[in-house]
Write a structure and sequence with these properties.
It is a single chain. The chain is mainly α and 191 residues long. The chain is rod-shaped, with a radius of gyration of 38 Å. 75% of the residues lie in helices and 0% in strands.
Amino acid sequence: MVSRTDNQRQDQRDAAPGQEGRSDSETLLAVLIERYSDLKQRLARRLGSADWAEDALQDTYLRINGMEVVGRIRNPTAYVIRAAFNIALNQRRTENRRLGAPEIEALLHIADDAPDALRIIEGRADIVRLKEVMAELPPRAREILLAARLDVLSRQQIAQRFGISVSMVEKELKWAQEYCADRFRSGRGKS
């Protein structure tokens, strides 16, 4: 088993001379290729999976190959390990956010509460029928009904608006509601 200090000594040797003439990204790629087995073992221990370590190192290679390094990297091995570890963590987070097959299957079987075309047509027909029934009401009864249901005015406010008593508002409102309900039900049965 390789100890932590042995890994640190190897990392320091990797950071030592011998990389002259290479760009930092070339140095990182060389470290990744030359020490692939060691890097994979170290990552597998930290991640708990050799497959995840391998995937992370492959993604790290692709990212390093296409990047421009800004600044000097003192320890290329540590840099590659940290980059691969971060990539593996990001992959895990992404996988955890994705739904699995059972969750997707459950979502596919959720009932749709949106009205279908028939309900929409029936609803529109009901609105037309209600307008027709309300047109049959005497003007004041219709206005009191609209003020109470559409404008959501209190009985007192309606009484003030029409200059009548609150009890008269209640009587006319009750009569208008019962009339509309009866006519609406009777008209619905005909169609």
